[in-house]
Design brief:
- By secondary structure, this protein is α/β, with parallel strands linked by helices.
- The protein has a domain of 158 residues: Rossmann fold (3-Layer(aba) Sandwich), CATH 3.40.50.
- It contains nine helices and ten strands.
- The strands form two sheets. The chain has a six-stranded mixed beta sheet, with helices on both faces. A four-stranded antiparallel beta sheet has the order 2-1-4-5, covered by helices on one side.
- A hairpin with a 2-residue loop joins strand 4 and strand 5.
- The mean pLDDT is 92.
Length: 229
């Protein structure tokens, strides 16, 4: 479903991504892990198109996304939940989700979204800025799902969220995968969350993917070593 080939990117003269190759199948959840500054968020931003790439190609379900602008990539099926959530604080929950509908041409929020996020149905007319951190994360994911993505990119979804809610986020991602059969790529540092949700784990270090394994074969001590400061 998603194929990234030879992707490189830089901030000014400083190259931060080096020849990244990444493939994700439909219905697969892949975790990109690594310490801060290893290139995970930059890879997400480059795939969605908010950061330019130096080299490489991004293919989504047979479509070359490389020349497309960010909103065009979303329209072709690439959903993105940024680090820090970035919901619209002064807009209601319903209005936030409706912004994700723009690229689909639809005006009504699919009932499936409120079934996945019952708390958002309850708080539909509440302003996004008045939600808790965990509720805002659910809102950001719901907004991305409203664009009807084939691939969902999530950047640090557990950041600033209490442990009990992190379990809910993991269960939610598994439910989304089961219901939509989309592929999910998640950048994360919390090993317990990674082991709970991912089918495959890729480790980034120095802007490169340096280790890869499936969850059933992964050595947690090895992954923890890459995450250690």
């Amino acid at each position: 479903m998603l194929n990234v080939r030879n992707l490189s990117a830089a901030y000014g003269q400083s190259r931060v991504l080096h020849d990244i190759d990444l493939s994700v199948n439909s219905g697969e959840i892949v975790a990109l892990v690594g310490r801060n500054g290893m290139g995970k968020s930059t890879l997400m931003k480059t795939m969605i198109g908010v950061m330019p790439m130096l080299t490489g190609q991004i293919m989504l379900d047979g479509t070359d996304m490389t020349p497309l602008l960010s909103h065009e990539r979303v329209g072709r099926g690439l959903g993105y939940v940024p680090q820090g959530r970035q919901i619209f604080g002064t807009m209601t929950v319903k209005e936030n989700i409706e912004t994700g509908l723009v690229v689909t041409g639809k005006s009504d929020i699919p009932a499936e979204i409120f079934e996945l996020f019952p708390i958002l149905a309850e708080f539909a007319v509440r302003r996004g800025g008045n939600l808790s951190g965990g509720q805002q994360q659910q809102l950001a994911i719901a907004r991305a799902l409203a664009s009807d993505p084939k691939v969902l990119l999530l950047d640090e979804p557990t950041e600033g969220i209490q442990p009990s809610i992190i379990k809910d986020i993991a269960r939610l991602l598994r439910d989304i995968r089961r219901i939509r059969n989309i592929c999910i790529v998640v950048c994360e540092q919390l090993l317990s969350f990674i082991m709970d949700v991912a089918d495959r784990i890729l480790v980034m270090e120095g802007g490169r993917i340096v280790h890869s394994d499936t969850r059933d074969r992964v050595d947690e001590a090895v992954i923890a070593g890459y995450l250690a400061v």
